[in-house]
Specification:
Chain lengths: 306, 306
């Protein structure tokens, strides 16, 4: 069976993942917002370490009402736009459609399930350095693996098919039998690097090169692991050193929140900070450093938004 | 007995406190650095909420070797310059001289005592909004009280005389019988406001006006009080609300560390952060938020120094 894909939010992530699927011959339908007119004329350009390509004829839309119902919907919006999903998704959905939230943080699937209690919902975690550098133009710098796990309804078979499609399209992909664990593990990286790169206006490389921020990143990682463990998600302490080492050899990279900050966009504070803090607090676990980071970020965001 | 005063470091603090003493007719001798030539020609100008004045003929020096021995030395340098004291002080000192360190933080007296084990040493705490706004020009905006306490050798009688001289000169002054407590109490204010105003590039007013930073300031204050109590210095929790309320009604003010940051000068991280952290650690007390702030400040300072 050949799956029909929708990509909701064709930016750094959606442009890359959807682009790779389409480039390999899959049936992919892309929702654009600001770039719609440009892409209709010029197509979608992906400059990737895996090889550059240009999709001149692309199934582009600026409204989901014009789109076909799809088997798989890859939601690649920022979580700060998730309030839109309630109206955006229905035209794309048939009885078997699975919606995969390729997003950061902890609460997106749960919030979506409140509005769509019968929908097949999954989460996707992108381990990738990718930026949108211009209209219809994605620059994929490093990594690229996507991990997909089920949140609601039995959809493992479909998700494994999606992983196969990705792999056939040269994108490393893996099914996770424990989405909650995968999300917490990603937070171990996201929480220190995203927030500190904004608060200290710097890069992952600079954070790693100064003893004091290296120690701070490390201690925040331990705090996140402590919270995960308190919430019943077992992550070994050794995972911290793994994350530090793999960041050390990463190309100098501005985390997505830093790019949002530089472009004066809303920051994903809710998904990456407030939701894990609330989850940990539910289990009686206190995260003083993450609490402090969340407060600093709220202050910074409010100093330029509205 | 009329006391002879030396002021070492005639800036925002030394210029105000020494200036007030001299203006009231006390015998005061001022050490200048960059402003020496200017002050010899133009005198010292103090614009103060207590009344402006201009000391046209001032005992100005640029080297303590030319200065007389004094009964009281008011050290008003930043703690970041304290390595200089070993060479600066000896010409000023007779057998009864008391050196009062009018400085921030926790460790200055102890460090000085290591080099001068027989010296009469005291600490001074300035509760003041005062800035140096130009060569030989001090702007005193608000408050002004100085608290003085003994650190080493019996010098209470002399310090009470100093307080009287200040009061006669219209400067509120008080002898503290517990310098350690006074220093910790001042840290309750200094630790949150100095650091956060640098890290978030803002003012005390903005920190108070945003719910998240208000909560952060408050929680850091509780952490500092916890550390003080662990170190055997009893401070009531109610002191936090007192500090918050009095800051709320302060004129918008950039803490001294923010001014140092804006002018790309070294920050007093050692005195205000590292020393209290080390002291608390000695007593087995952990300060996660203050630790995080110290690390953020070290990173920021090192990004512009050398």
């Amino acid at each position: 069976m050949k799956l029909k894909y929708a990509v909701v939010g064709t930016g750094a992530l959606g442009g890359f993942y959807g682009g790779m699927l389409a480039h390999a011959g899959n049936d992919v339908h892309f929702l654009f917002h600001n770039d719609y007119d440009f892409v209709c004329k010029n197509g979608l350009k992906v400059d990737s370490v895996l090889g550059d390509f240009h999709l001149r004829n692309i199934n582009a839309y600026n409204n989901t009402n014009q789109m076909p119902k799809c088997d798989v919907v890859l939601v690649c919006l920022k979580t700060t736009n998730n309030a839109l999903l309630r109206n955006i998704l229905p035209p794309l959905i048939h009885s078997e459609t699975c919606v995969i939230l390729v997003q950061n943080g902890l609460k997106a699937e749960r919030e979506l399930a409140e509005f769509f209690p019968d929908l097949s919902i999954a989460g996707g975690l992108a381990f990738i350095c990718s930026n949108k550098v211009g209209k219809g133009h994605i620059l994929h710098l490093d990594y690229g693996k996507i991990t997909i796990g089920s949140f609601q309804k039995e959809n493992r078979e479909l998700l494994e098919q999606v992983c196969k499609d990705f792999i056939t399209s040269k994108v490393p992909a893996e099914f996770s039998s424990n989405l909650k664990e995968s999300r917490w593990k990603k937070l171990v990286w996201n929480i220190p690097y995203n927030g500190l790169s904004v608060v200290l206006n710097t890069t992952t490389e600079q954070l790693m090169n100064h003893t004091k921020t290296y120690e701070l990143v490390r201690d925040i990682m331990f705090e996140v692991i402590g919270a995960a463990n308190a919430c019943g998600v077992k992550i070994e302490k050794g995972f911290v050193q793994e994350m530090l080492d793999s960041t050390r050899i990463m190309k100098p990279y501005a985390p997505s929140m830093k790019l949002d900050f530089d472009n004066k966009r809303p920051l994903e504070i809710g998904a990456i900070y407030s939701a894990p803090l609330a989850e940990a607090a539910n289990y009686g676990f206190n995260m003083p450093k993450v609490t402090m980071l969340e407060r600093q970020l709220r202050f910074i965001q409010d100093s330029y938004l509205k």
